[in-house]
Amino acid sequence: MNINDFEQFASMWELANEGVHNKVTPSCIEWSYEILKDHSIDDIMDALIANAKDPKNGRFAPTPAAIIEQIRIAHEKAKQPVGLQALPENWDEWDA
Questions:
Q1: CA 25 to chain centre
Q2: Distance CA 39, CA 37 (A)
Q3: The whole model's pTM is what?
């Protein structure tokens, strides 16, 4: 992110917190921004949505660590070839 993304980030962070009835302070938003600023605003938005949908974590206010984990998971999934996840590493193990 860059400083031009701060307002969008602040709005998203407030909304994600209000979804679980948690009010955030401006200093909390600035602190979270500092922790997450190395990630793109799109990755953060996607991670906030994924976090809210997560049956376990979605019940709680998002933390920077939870958002970083959601970004990591999304990037790992993006590295996997579509439709090939079930294929064995060693073709000799494939039972035809």
A1: 21
A2: 5
A3: 0.77
